[in-house]
Write a structure and sequence with these properties.
There is one protein chain. The chain is α/β, with parallel strands linked by helices and 388 residues long. Helix content is 33%, strand content 12%. It is built from nine helices and six strands, in the order αααβββαβαβααβαα. Strand 1 and strand 2 form a beta hairpin. The longest helix has 29 residues. The N and C termini lie far apart (73 Å).
Length: 388
């Protein structure tokens, strides 16, 4: 009997060691299926159209290209047209946002948005590879990954028109996206409005944005560090105050926003020597930068969606009454659209009614005296409770 008792001691010790051992570390993040090369090809197609000022034939051609790429994936593309008239009796500009949605079984919506137009300019207008095309390239590739592997919550991708059209009425597309969400009654379920801008710089450095919701913003910087993109998303860099489309929602008192943008395009100072010049071209962008941003955006959305799904399970939040319908099979890849004609050298500034801005749009905003919302509050069922 003694022999048997002593023989059992190693097994008892092993069991005690297993019971007291610390839990294993969380598994490393696997790479979401995002291709920087595919995104760079989308960037090439957009820049091949030349300048894409909102309300011009080239702007409409860019919108048609984005639509064709999304429809080639078998997606239903929604168009929200609107008209902008700078002056009561001035010229009007016909604009339109595009969006696609990937439904999930849980109630709640995540939005990612970006412009696809370029700013008016004098002289030789830039093709806007980084400003106005890089974010669209990322979202087009993200659409492919979401079609192949959707999230637990619905994700909507907005392609915004007229964002850069008029410095005196900036971010028209964001304004109309907000109004569309409001009219559809989607704001109570909106968990995040993510804004991408200038994310293709070959020397990418995206800093934290003060105007963004702190907790939501840190999710993206955390997955960037865990995924090996700490250099592109430096944690020790000073914060930026980004004057971009997400500020439109903050102005409407919707604060669950995050902006990811590199404001230093060619150099270490804002806005950088390439900004709104002919040097804003493919040569100064890279598939590696697009891949880094696409990876972080996809991983960040996955993380937030899973976190919200866990909260829903704990609270017993019911799933959608109807399961989302499966998406149709994608069509054959579309051929890139060619510019209708070579763009002539302009002899005068386009859109004369729109004066060229003398200051970069990314001016510093006053730092908030209160921290942004750190949690994702569940919208109250009773409207009276929200007013208290």
């Amino acid at each position: 009997m003694k022999i048997l008792r002593f023989a059992a001691l190693p097994w008892i010790a092993l069991a005690l060691a297993c019971a007291t051992a610390p839990p294993p570390p969380p598994p490393a993040l696997g790479p979401p299926p995002f291709s920087g090369e595919r995104a760079y090809e989308q960037l090439r197609k957009l820049t091949a159209l030349g300048p894409r000022v909102g309300g011009t034939p080239a702007g409409a051609q860019a919108r048609a290209l984005v639509r064709a790429e999304l429809e080639a994936l078998g997606l239903e593309v929604n168009e929200e047209p609107f008209v902008y008239t700078p002056e009561p009796e001035g010229e009007s500009y016909a604009l339109a946002n595009l969006w696609v949605e990937f439904p999930g079984p849980h109630v709640g919506l995540f939005v990612a948005a970006t412009p696809f137009d370029t700013a008016p300019g004098s002289g030789t207008a830039p093709v806007g590879a980084n400003e106005g095309a890089s974010g669209a390239a990322v979202l087009l590739e993200l659409a492919r990954t979401l079609r192949e592997r959707p999230l637990t919550h619905s994700v909507r991708l907005y392609f915004l028109d007229g964002e850069l059209l008029d410095p005196d009425a900036a971010f028209l597309g964001s304004e109309h996206a907000y109004l569309g969400l409001q009219e559809a009654g989607a704001l109570p379920d909106l968990r995040l409005f993510l804004y991408l801008h200038q994310v293709g710089d070959a020397d990418l450095e995206i800093r934290r944005d003060r105007l963004s919701d702190r907790r939501l913003r840190e999710v993206f910087f955390d997955v960037a560090a865990r995924g090996g993109f700490a250099e592109e998303f430096p944690s020790a860099a000073p914060y930026d105050a980004k004057r971009l489309g997400h500020g439109v929602l903050v102005a409407h008192d919707f604060r669950r926003v995050v902006a990811l943008a590199d404001l230093r395009y060619g150099g270490s100072e804002i806005p950088g020597e390439y900004w709104r010049t002919i040097d804003d071209d493919l040569a100064h962008c890279s598939p590696e930068s697009l891949a880094a941003v696409g990876w972080v955006v996809r991983a960040g959305l996955e993380t937030l969606s899973e976190q919200q799904a866990n909260i829903d399970r704990i609270r017993g939040t019911p799933l959608r009454a109807e399961a989302p319908e499966p998406l149709p099979e994608p069509l054959e890849p579309v051929e890139p659209l060619e510019p209708t004609e070579p763009l002539p050298e302009p002899t005068e500034p386009p859109n004369e009614a729109l004066p060229e801005s003398t200051e970069p749009p990314n001016e510093a905003l006053p730092e908030s005296t209160e921290p942004p919302n750190e949690a994702l509050p569940e919208p109250p069922a009773d409207p009276a409770a929200a007013a208290e």
